[in-house]
Amino acid sequence: MATTYAALLRGINVGGSRKVPMADLRTLMTGLGYDGVRTYLQSGQAVFTSAHGDEESLAAELASAIEKHFGFTVDVIVRDHAYLKAVADNCPYPAQELEAKQLHVTYFSAPVDAGRFAEIDQAAFLPEEFRLGDRVLYLYAPNGLGRSKLAEMLSRPRFNKGLMATTRNWNTVIKLVEMTRE
Prior knowledge:
Blueprint: E1 3-9, H1 22-31, E2 35-40, E3 45-50, H2 55-70, E4 76-80, H3 81-89, E5 103-108, E6 129-133, E7 136-140, H4 149-154, H5 157-160, E8 165-169, H6 170-180
Antiparallel strand pairs: 1-3, 1-4, 2-3, 5-7, 5-8, 6-7
Helix pairs in contact: 3-6
């Protein structure tokens, strides 16, 4: 039976570098045997259906194909609809009451525990705050991600060591749930 997934590509089409045209990405993914390939925005989201593999093997296969085709490495995280829906459903913040620019989700390639972020004095960043979920970090940044001092702190390499991590705003989180609905 086929499963519908979202592929999250990190750091493409930003600032004029690491260009991955979405039409080329769709063609590449279709060539890998994925069905129903669709993309969302230019910032690296693709939805597809596959009857083979699991999230990790599909992510590795896609990352390898992107490197071979485009000539640079791109971190790829693949998640299925059930997971994406659970992330949205388990949001610890009142998402329906917030602007999308105020709420972000960082998807991680593996589980993370609170100890990884223990040195961060969350009270020093209020009203900004974060909470952990299943392979995700929810970030509430009332003035947006671009002005967030907490987001800047969380993006430091020591907090993401050994992980792939990619962040999406709440609109994208919800859109991926909708696009992967089977």
